[in-house]
Amino acid sequence: MQVTHHLLEKAIIYITLLRRGVLARISQGLLVFLLGLSSLALAEDQPPNIIFFLTDDQRDDVLGCYGNELAKTPTIDDLASEGIRFENSFCQVPICAANRATILSGLSQRTHGHNFGKPPVPSEYIASSYPKVLKEAGYRIGFAGKYGMKFADPGLQQEFDFFKKIDRNPYIKKLKDGTRRHETDLCADATIEFIQSNPEGKPFCMSVSFNATHAEDGDKRPGYHFQWPESADGLFDDITMPEPYQADEKFYQALPSFLQNPKELNRQRFFWRWDTPKKYQTNMRAYFRLANGIDQAIARVIEALQAKGLSENTIIIYTGDNGLMMGDRGLAGKWNPYEQSLRVPLIIYDPRLPEALRGQVLPHLANSVDLAPTMVDYAGVNLPEVYQGRSLLPMIRGQRIAWREDIFCQHHFKRFNDWHAVRDQRYKYAVYYDQPYEALFDLQEDPGELINLADNPHYADILKQKKERLQDYLSRFPKAPEKKPKNKK
Predict the structure, then answer these.
(1) From the CB of residue 309, how many other CB atoms can be counted at a distance below 10 Å?
(2) In the sheet that 360-367 helps form, which strands lie side by side, from edge to edge?
(3) Which residue, 243, 230, 288, is CA-closest to 72?
(4) What is the Cα–Cα distance from 370 to 184, expressed in whole angstroms?
């Protein structure tokens, strides 16, 4: 395979130069690293399987491996400790339909144009979607869970060899035999069925899309917002959940006035879920039980891989479709450019990695548009030119490459205030294009995004730079055509 040969040849060149004395000062550690790369390359002669786990409304700091001491996510934490964890991973769009379209297509919402109430992803992008590319490369592709988006006809669903859509509501499903089962467990059941039915020697890519940890939006009763699986009963009953990180009134007061509007959905759902200590404690415990249910489901899938002898050649990718405010700033949803809405976990476990490369915590800015390129790259296939993200594989394999300095995020949905933003390792610039509001935050000095520097003359040069970077993204990423109005009769 192309990637295999590239890595192997690179390792051999370095080792040959070392033996000739050309790199006499090379460290022993680097030699071990290079030998590890060559071993990895040899292992990649067999295409790896891929299982892609996607959660809903799950920001990164609700997992143990991201520092949450209360979380009970041992399986996910083990994947991080034995794999790669990205500490700066962000969704491209903080809303499920649009960002799921981004993940499948490798394109920004600006380009694919899809969201609730918007046209589907244009059919021309089916061919470059990661399921279709992998299928053309000889993979068996499967899907289970919440699909939550749409490609234009003929659609992407028909391309899957195995497809089990599990609707998001309600969480507890009544089956044909009269029994009841949680949506998370049904996702695991379907994945195990896919694994067990896979032909021997056939590489596969299975996408598992949980509805958890999303709330039951139509049920406003505390505790029923986040209906956990039975296996998580009793967890956190004896624990007092810490109050929101940004519970102080000053964070709410720092919001632009239109986000303080009580009719704005972020605020409406805050009053449903988090506005009293009792609601907050009840719903937070339920939310963390849902997360534990995901962890248990993934453990079952890993056991199925092991039982079939596939665990040593199966890549596991774990991420979320968007973050969640969870009471911070007096808000409940996402849809805004704050860190809680944009940050998502990203863990990539590759059992073929040399021991020296495992357990890395990478600081690189990762984005949802990088997931399709990464999966295609794992299969050793050339990346479609249309992709707007980049493969994360070079960093995972320990290669030093020039990487992006910032990411482009956005939100476009008629029901909410729309914005686009650029974020680098220190600064974030966001501008709303249906409101007279822009914000510049210094995330190093002000990680809570409390002080808007957009009108501060001392930051005029930085503001100008960020505006230019945003304009660069807008000029490079084609804009999807707006839906034409129907002709009036």
Answers:
(1) 9
(2) 162-165, 140-145, 204-209, 49-55, 314-320, 346-349, 84-90, 360-367
(3) 288
(4) 26
Residue 122 tokens read as 């244009």
Give the residue-averaged pLDDT of 177-193. 96
Give yes or no for a cis peptide into 74 (omega within 30° of 0).
Answer: no
In angstroms, the CA 292 to CA 324 distance is 17
Cβ count within 10 A of residue 185: 18
From 37, 89, 96, 39, select the one nearest 65 (Cα to Cα): 89
Contacts of residue 158, defined as CB under 8 A and 6 or more positions apart, other chains included, come to: none
Q: How many alpha carbons lie under 13 Å from residue 410 in its C-beta half-sphere?
A: 23
pLDDT value of residue 168:
80
CB atoms under 10 Å from CB of 135, counted, come to 16
Q: How far is CA 60 from CA 197, 247, 331, 365, in A?
A: 33, 19, 18, 14
How confident is the model over 358-411, as pLDDT tens digits?
999 999 999 999 999 999 999 999 999 999 999 999 999 999 999 999 999 999
Look at the chain and count its residues.
489
The pLDDT of residue 28 is above 80: no
- Residues 439 and 429: beta-carbon distance below 8 Å: yes
Query: Rounded distance, CA 99 to CA 114, Å?
Result: 9
How would residue 222 be classed by pLDDT, with cut points 50, 70 and 90?
A: confident
CA distance 454 to 261: 22
pLDDT at 428 over 60: yes
Summarize pLDDT for 105-155 with one digit per residue, the tens: 999 999 999 999 899 999 999 999 999 999 999 999 999 999 999 999 999
